[in-house]
Amino acid sequence: MSLVPSYTESMFDLGLGEFVVGITDYCIHPAEGTANLPRLGGTKDPRLGEIIDLQPELVLANWEENTRYTVESLEANGLAVWVTFPKTVRQALDVLWTLVGLFHSQTAMVRLEMLELTLDWAVSAAAERESLPGFCPIWSDHTQEGVEWWMTFNQETYSHDLLALLGFKNVFGERQRLYPLEADLGLAQPEDPDERDTRYPCVRLEEIEAAQPQVLLLPSEPFAFDESHRQHLEASLPSTPAVQAGRVHLVDGSLIAWPGTRLAHALRELPALLVET
């Protein structure tokens, strides 16, 4: 049973799709392979009773995508749940290698070795050119007072590590999220974050402009950035090298955010967006 869309896809890509007995509503890849599988709710609110009735030998879960309540409920009912939390490409690949080991599949091993070789080639190619300072938001909104903000990610995330390997220098890579939101935006004093996640800072347009990114990537998920957002950033940040050079790109968000075999697609499509033109 997979509660993680990226791992559902990975199971099929590795030739292990026959072992998947249930998925979430958001497991859309591969379309043909997942078409007839039971869809048992969202990643945050799966239908636990139906999962328990399936009695899967293993449930694939993720620390960010699934809730503690879901994991603990399934474990309390005797199910084995494997919770992953890869923050780097290497850690994501290690998860796949563990899957390969669990199923003892020679086919999966060969496919994963090919992915490793493709990654090595892409990283070597990126090392031969200068990294481009860039900004990649994952959400945008306004405060109650109307202050516009853009959420991004720092160096402790899979997305940061993937883009860094391909020649993208995250201009907010060292930035930590401050709480409350007003403190993150420089409008209030910060408080102790306690156990809250500090990997996703929120910034104002003024900060983005000051960072002078040379490339802007607008992913389609988790927030569905579209042409209107691209035009808004171009109009709001005219002095940035990214806008002046025409490097404000809409991009498939799964290429940046999905750890797993989707990495192969990312290695084919993202490098072309991260070169000077």
List the helices and strands and how they pair.
Blueprint: H1 5-13, H2 31-34, H3 48-54, E1 59-62, H4 68-76, E2 81-84, H5 89-103, H6 106-127, E3 132-135, E4 139-142, E5 148-151, H7 158-165, E6 168-170, H8 181-184, E7 202-203, H9 205-211, E8 215-219, H10 227-236, H11 241-244, E9 248-251, H12 253-257, H13 263-269
Parallel strand pairs: 1-2, 3-6, 3-8, 8-9
Antiparallel strand pairs: 4-5, 5-7
Description of the structure:
The structure is a single chain. The chain has 277 residues and is α/β, with parallel strands linked by helices. The protein folds into two domains: 1-85, 3-Layer(aba) Sandwich (Rossmann fold); 126-274, Nitrogenase molybdenum iron protein domain (Rossmann fold), CATH 3.40.50. The chain contains 13 helices and nine strands. The strands form three sheets. A four-stranded parallel beta sheet has the order 6-3-8-9. The longest helix has 22 residues, at 106-127. It is globular.
